[in-house]
């Protein structure tokens, strides 16, 4: 059994950005030499989410409209009384599901035909990290 | 340490269906002979979710009404401009939580009194798969 | 490779309560002597959630207001026809994300600057459990 850890870094140009990180996660898996197991992909900041869905630009706009409709960016939020303006971003990341744990088979992500891993930044323009932690076997059984 | 992988297959008769897959997951655990560890249950299609909640038919209707109210099946969705009609299903699966990782103790799911694992199909009537990946020990410590 | 399991117990005084359980999870990790791996933190009851976000009291009020707005505690819910009054709590826990799997590095939670693990009780005043299951290595590589 082996474990492997890496940290992806992001500093988006826009406050809200959706980035397909599937190739980054597969690169970490390859580096780990782990052939079979689980990979946790967890944003280390609490105004971002990692989720799995379609790489289709219209859907990404639908997600943004859904989030804006359910929890508007501007609102009478108590968290913003601390001087912050990102209360909405803390809530969006919960609705999108926060993090994913994905399967590794034969040394790479074991994905369905449309599954892609996304980093969803809801309060960007500054440095953020995503932790990738793998637990598994270096040799297939 | 051992890993074990299996794929459950579903082709629901209705577009929306909720299926209790707890016995299926326990069957895979038994087949794996893994006594202690984690089991990831991940839908390989992005218009379905796996979640844990009560096996109570009224609650399942409440979930459907909640989803319909928060994200109507019919809407002015950009994803549907690609020719699809399932934008809502991509969003529903995020709100329901996408996937679960559950504990295995003494060779079976270590569940609370009401925890049941559900496959929630939001765009069915075609073949879909759910990946079950186990990481753990074959012998108890 | 090693596994370790523990159960946290809660009996909140209020029906709705948010408890920072980060120290409890770190205590279980220390007890396990596992230095690197994954820790699953899973509520064993289906009217509670475990989530990761900020330890800021205003934000916790924002979460409660968001949940109340999206799924009111009082509503025409079918689950409540069974004699229950907690249908809303089953739905809130899905919207908050149900459970988390977090990374362990160097014998403790590998957290970003603001990540804290919360137990969110939505139907308390009675005994509930949270399962903590660790899979990893006792010795660092």
Characteristic terms for this protein:
homotrimer; 141 residues; alpha+beta; Jelly Rolls; five-stranded antiparallel beta sheet; 3 helices; 8 strands; elongated
Structure in words:
The structure is a homotrimer of 141-residue chains. With 141 residues, chain A is of the alpha+beta class. Chain A is built from three helices and eight strands. In chain A, the strands form two sheets. In chain A, strands 1-8-3-5-6 form a five-stranded antiparallel beta sheet, with helices on one face. A three-stranded antiparallel beta sheet of chain A has the order 2-7-4. The radius of gyration of chain A is 16 Å and the shape is elongated. In chain A, 51% of the residues are buried. The A-B interface holds A 1, 36-38, 51-54, 56-59, 61-63, 66, 70, 95-97, 100-103, 105, 110-115, 135-137, 141 and B 1-3, 5, 38, 40, 42-46, 70-71, 77-82, 87, 90-91, 93-95, 97-99, 101, 129, 131, 133, 135.
Give the overall shape of chain A, derived from the CA principal axes.
Answer: elongated
Distance, first to last CA of chain A:
12 Å
- Determine the CATH topology of chain A: Jelly Rolls
Strand content of chain A: 35-45%
Question: What can be said about this structure in brief?
Answer:
The structure is a homotrimer of 141-residue chains. Chain A has 141 residues and is α+β, with helices and mostly antiparallel strands.
Topology:
3 copies of one chain form a homotrimer.
Chain A: E1 2-10, E2 17-20, H1 22-32, E3 36-43, E4 48-53, H2 57-70, H3 87-96, E5 100-105, E6 108-109, E7 116-121, E8 128-137
Antiparallel strand pairs in A: 1-8, 2-7, 3-5, 3-8, 4-7, 5-6
């Amino acid at each position: 059994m082996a474990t492997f850890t890496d940290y992806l870094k992001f500093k988006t140009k826009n406050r809200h950005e959706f980035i397909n990180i599937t190739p980054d996660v597969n690169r970490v898996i390859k580096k780990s030499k782990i052939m079979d197991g689980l990979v946790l992909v967890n944003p280390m900041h609490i105004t971002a989410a990692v989720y799995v869905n379609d790489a289709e630009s219209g859907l990404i706009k639908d997600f943004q409209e859904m989030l804006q409709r359910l929890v508007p960016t501007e609102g009478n939020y108590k968290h913003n009384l601390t001087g912050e303006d990102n209360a909405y971003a803390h809530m969006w990341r919960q609705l999108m599901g926060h993090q994913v744990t994905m399967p590794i088979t034969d040394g790479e992500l074991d994905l369905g035909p449309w599954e892609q891993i996304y980093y969803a930044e809801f309060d960007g323009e500054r440095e953020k990290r995503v932790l990738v932690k793998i637990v598994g076997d270096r040799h297939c059984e």
